[in-house]
Amino acid sequence: MFEVQNLNVYYGDSHVIRNVGFSVGEQETVAIMGRNGMGKTTLLKSLIGMLPARSGSVALDGTPLLGKRSYQRVAAGLAYVPQGRMIFPYLSVEENILSGMGNAPERIVPQFVFDTFPVLREMRHRKGGNLSGGQQQQLAISRALVSNPKLLILDEPTEGIQPSIIKDIARTLNRLKAERKFSMIVSEQVLWFAREIADRFLIIEKGEFVYEDAKERVDTAKINAFLTV
């Protein structure tokens, strides 16, 4: 459904992502794991179009995306929840969600959002910046999902969130994926969270994938070795 081949991304003269290739199937969740500075965020930003790729290919359902702007990739079926959530702090919760709907003819928050995240209904007139970290993450996920994506990309969704909320987010993402039939790419360092939602694991080291395995065969000790300094 989603395929990346020989992707190369640079920061100036620094070669950060090196000939990366992987695929994501229908309603599959792929976890990309690795220590800080290994290229996870750079890779995800290049997939959504926030960073240009020097070479390679990115395609969704056979449609080439490389060279397209971020909003064009969203229109094609990608959605992105950035690291740190990046909600609009001075807009209301409702305005934040509606900002993800682009030029949709009906500017109404879809019912599934408030059914999934009741706290957002209660706080819909509150400014986004006044929400807790966990509530802001719910808001960022909602903003991404109102575009009805085929593939949801999440960068470090557990960062700065307490463990009890992380468990709720894992359950909610699994339910939403089943109900709304999208796939996911998740960049993550918390292994137990990744194991709750991922079907397949990829480990990135210095811009290259060095380990891959399916959930049922995954070597937890080996992954932990990659994640520790």
CATH architecture designation: 3-Layer(aba) Sandwich
Helical/strand content category:
alpha/beta
Binned strand content: 25-35%
Number of domains: 1
What is the CATH superfamily label? P-loop containing nucleotide triphosphate hydrolases
Keywords:
229 residues, alpha/beta, six-stranded mixed sheet, four-stranded antiparallel sheet, Rossmann fold, 35% helix
What's the SSE blueprint?
Layout: E1 2-11, E2 14-24, E3 29-33, H1 40-48, E4 55-60, E5 63-64, H2 70-76, E6 78-81, H3 93-99, H4 111-116, H5 118-122, H6 133-145, E7 151-155, H7 163-180, E8 183-188, H8 191-197, E9 200-205, E10 208-214, H9 220-227
Parallel strand pairs: 3-8, 3-9, 6-7, 7-8
Antiparallel strand pairs: 1-2, 1-4, 4-5, 9-10
How would you sum up this structure, described in words?
With 229 residues, this protein is α/β, with parallel strands linked by helices. The protein has one domain (2-83, 149-227): 3-Layer(aba) Sandwich (Rossmann fold), CATH 3.40.50. Helix content is 35%, strand content 27%. The chain contains 9 helices and 10 strands. The protein has helices at residues 40-48, 70-76, 93-99, 111-116, 118-122, 133-145, 163-180, 191-197, 220-227, and strands spanning 2-11, 14-24, 29-33, 55-60, 63-64, 78-81, 151-155, 183-188, 200-205, 208-214. Strands 6-7-8-3-9-10 form a 6-stranded mixed sheet, with helices on both faces. A hairpin with a 2-residue loop joins strand 1 (2-11) and strand 2 (14-24). It is globular and about 45 Å long. The N and C termini lie far apart (34 Å). The mean pLDDT is 93.
